[in-house]
Design a protein that fits this description.
β2 and β3 form a beta hairpin. Helix content is 41%, strand content 18%. The two termini are 36 Å apart. The chain folds into two domains: 100 residues, Nucleic acid-binding proteins (OB fold (Dihydrolipoamide Acetyltransferase, E2P), Beta Barrel); 189 residues. It contains 13 helices and eight strands. The strands form two sheets. It has a five-stranded mixed beta barrel. It has a two-stranded antiparallel ribbon with strand order 7-8. The protein is an alpha+beta fold.
Length: 338
Amino acid sequence: MTTVTRTHVEIRTFTPNMYVDGTYAILNPQVGTTRGGKPFLKGILRDATGECHMRQWTVDERTIGEVGSTGFVWIAGHTQDYNGQVQIIVEQIRAVEISEEQLRALLPCTKFDVGEMFAELSQILGTIEHAAVKALVQAYLDDEKLMGRFREAPAASSLHHAWIGGLLEHTLQLLKLAERMLPLYPMLNRDIVLAGLFLHDLAKTAELSWDKGFNYTTTGNLIGHVTMGAIWLERKIREAAAKGAPLLPAKAHLVLSHIILSHHSEPEFGAAKRPSTPEAIFVAMLDNLDAKTSMALCHRKGGVDDPAAPAASLMDQQFTDKIYALDTRLFTPDPLAE
């Protein structure tokens, strides 16, 4: 029997043979072709709890472009089991505008308090001792528009910390890791490391957009946060100096630019240069540690211990599909569980 609902149904609760009538984010809507040569609409529906593949078998090609115009759609349709996973067969679909409150329900959000995270981040940065580095960091913190976006931005469109508040969460985690690890490496310049961690991803606030789901902006596609971050650094140094702050030494400017340009470690991963100072290596390694650990833990949610995971063989349950960003399949069970 089909279950009928008139209220928003969280995607994580989807089971086969449900009738769904509600609003969701839509990712990558596109036209496919059936074996019989007929067009159909396919894409991914998302809310704050998960994602679900969708299909609409009868479509008007003239209106397909309208479906993705806002990034959000109202749909009516029914769920079904397909190869052990739930997908939704859409019978009606139309683009809709949503409120800020709805945005929070339809996009994944950090589980932590944004205000508390930002206060903790500011407290750690407040321990920077060098006057010019401290003034530079404060110039960023005083930029209310930038910090507003920093508190909201995801850290990525899909890979790690891909949720509202994810960039702040990721940056704070890096600063907390550094706070614990820097005493083990007393020869590292603590002020440069903390400033570099704060600055390394800040330009993602312009690289990414999140008003219609998580996407790359035109500037993000053509320039990217690595290059933008280095450009912004030069501007902020001038801003701080114009307000009477001590001028940042030329070598400090150079090494902070280098941290921003090299934090992806390898050119094939988006780095403009390979890390070539001890501080840059430390920042890049911490960034990689947090990003990949976060990815692994997020994928574990779909493993054998997740009650929402689709039924599959025991062997399939023990391993995820290949995760290309990690170049492996993850073994997900708790090794100490009975």
